[in-house]
Amino acid sequence: MAPLQGARYRGSVKDFPNFDPDQDAEALYKSMKGLGSDKEAILDLITSRSNRQRQEITQAYKQIYGKDLIDDLKYELTGKFERLIVGLMRPLAYFDAKEIKDSLAGIGTDEKCLIEILASRTNEQIHALVAAYKDAYDRDLEPDVLGDTTGHFKKMLVVLLQGEREEDDVVSEDLVEQDAKDLFEAGEQKWGTDEAQFIFILGNRSRMHLQLVFDAYKNLAGKQIEESIKNELSGDFQKLMLAVVQCMRSTKDYFAKRLYKSMKGMGTADNTLIRIMVSRSELDMMDIREAFRTKYEKSLYSMIKNDTSGEYKKALLKLCGGDDDAAGEFFPEAAQVAYQRWELSAAARVELKGTVSPASDFVADDDAKVLRKAMKGFAGTDEDAIINIVCFRSNAQRQEIRKDFKKHFGRDLMADLKSELSGTVGKLILGLMMTPAQFDAKQLKKAMEGAGTEEKTLIEILATRNNQEIQAINEAFQEAFNKSLEDSLTSDTSGHFRRVLISLAVGNRDEGDEDRAKALEDAKVIADVLEISDAGGDSDSSSMETRFMSILCTRSYPHLRRVFQEFIKLTNHDVEHTIKKEMKGDFKDALVAIVKSVQNKPAFFAERLRKAMKGAGTDEKTLTRILISRSEVDLLNIRQEFKEAYEKSLHHCIESETSGDYRKALLALCGGDD
Predict the structure, then answer these.
(1) 427: Cβ contacts below 8 Å, ≥ 6 apart
(2) Tens digit of each residue's pLDDT (9 = 90 or more) over 634-661
(3) How many C-beta neighbours within 10 Å does residue 343 have?
């Protein structure tokens, strides 16, 4: 796909046309004159002028009225709104200087503010900041930082304060390899850590050089540099070095993440929100918006709108500059990012690996005896012995154990386990003892039983299984419940949702390669159904909807990857984002699950696991279902995607969110801590 053209300027605030500083100064004076102040007029004017124009307004205000505009604004305004407006009135270097002065003032130091500013600013911005600090406070910044910080954290801050990072784009391959080797030997291969090497390399090398060093480091160490920093460093020094790495990789991604964290959960970190919105509004706010929407699947605008209020909210939204979730507001750059993701998905040749494999020296009869002993007698049930057998055998081996248990003891192993175990661990062990098809069939049946239907379970299973697995599920369902899966879905679901589930349950997905000519036709059908194509569509909307569902439910994964790339080229929109905007309810969820499964199935399951353990309470059903069903398929890949997406291991989350024998069994299936 050819690069999508965009303007070079990436700020959200621009010079106001036909600017007249005297007229603006007069308007601000009138808005603050008399009882109360016209906050709407103040925010409208200040947020629509560039920083250069605001400085001219400040000078004009002084000349006309003999008063300091910032002092008057401080007097008239209060709280977060005042902090935001006053921040906008300062030149960027003086704004940064004030933020750092505030972070060093009083009891304790705001290390997060120091880290954010010094890790993200260019050499030129650092020099301007140091000069502004001296001018504003008649003090040198470096001694003030030295007085308020300690250890390696202090040393790295001082290095960054010099503003001497190399800026040469010419990179020496030999030096890249040497730096990667030096970092590896300073951390992973050393007893203790040589922090000086980390400080020297990360504090001085150019952005382009470091990006290549990070790639070379991964090849050498088998892990990302961030993971080693987390293992080898600690405290504020670790946070600073991680921020430097993130900024060297992508400044826009770093600030998108900072903004998301400032508004995520209970309460808002207003100082962080204000600092970033003020400092990036004329630099790269458009890039940050793009990164935010791409990473978090919601616009920065919508999150600010939901998390703030009053004039403060209005001013922040003006600085944001637009809602990327609104119709027609999807960034061409975000479309290009989405296209590249689909290209990577199409090119990826990832080997899928489970975490459970056949036990060596396996003797089914011996395991059957161990299980019988674990459930026999008055001493109670030996859950550890059961877990050690069941969780460390492949499914095929478990089926052999069931047969030998019946042959040797004349008893049904499943019935015995059911009588001896209870709760979540009982459901987990019993699930593992079924064949994959029997387990999936039972999960589908339970999802349709009783009052209400567990639609997410139906979607998760039917959208992610291949033809062979679907056929086996149909047979197992019929055998276990004397009713076809299709009939059950017909009885318990309705509308388009029912149609897409039944189409998936047929298990008739093509398994061939892509057809480029057909991919373009399919992309046009999807665009017409989602009503974002410029081309005239089929007048029979019902026919088009049928074709649309047929495309998603029957085309091969390689072909769909090509279809979704053609869709982006055709519309400048990502298909997942568009489905979320245009569709509703369970039908939308099913289509999104198909798209996510096509793009990266392990990442889809990683997201499901994250949601199962996020927030208050744990969704044990989902957690159990995914660990059982993926343990011999791709759970190792899911673990890797989980760690990369959420910066913590699946093992760690399971350990934190579960307990007792259930936790032991889950961790055994998880297969290790990343």
Answers:
(1) 620, 624
(2) 999 999 999 988 888 999 999 999 999 9
(3) 13
**To which residue do tokens 């994250």 refer?**
610
E strands of 226-283, at which residues?
Answer: none
CA 204 – CA 198 distance, rounded (Å): 10
Q: How far apart are CA 500 and CA 545, in angstroms?
A: 11
Give pTM, 2 decimals: 0.70
Distance separating alpha carbons of residues 285 and 147, to the nearest angstrom? 34
| Helix intervals (H) in 410-454 | 413-420, 423-433, 436-448
Specify whether the CB–CB gap between 484 and 474 falls below 8 A: yes
Q: Could you give the 3-state DSSP secondary structure of residue 288?
A: helix
Nearest partner of 571 among 519, 521, 535, 517, judged by Cα: 535
Structure tokens at 642: 């989980």
Residue 355 CA to residue 391 CA, distance in Å, equals 10
| Exposed/middle/buried for residue 607 (C-beta within 10 Å: 0-12, 13-18, 19+) | middle
Residues 6+ apart with CB under 8 A from 405: 368, 371, 372, 411, 412, 413, 416
- How far lies 238's CA from each of 106, 216, 225, 244, 309, in Å? 24, 21, 12, 10, 35
**CB-CB contact of 462 with 597 (8 Å):** no
Report the C-alpha gap between 276 and 494 in whole angstroms.
47
pLDDT at residue 40 in the model: 94
Per-residue tokens: 388: 């050690």
Q: Please, what is the angle between helix 650-657 and helix 635-646, to 10°?
A: 90
CA atoms within 13 A on the CB side of 115: 22
Contact 197, 164 (CB under 8 A): no
- Coil, helix or strand at residue 149: coil
Of 628, 634, 627, nearest in space to 609 by CA: 627
Whole-angstrom distance, CA of residue 306 vs CA of residue 320: 14
What mean pLDDT comes out for the span 174-197? 85
Reference 401, options 428, 367, 358, 370; nearest CA is 367
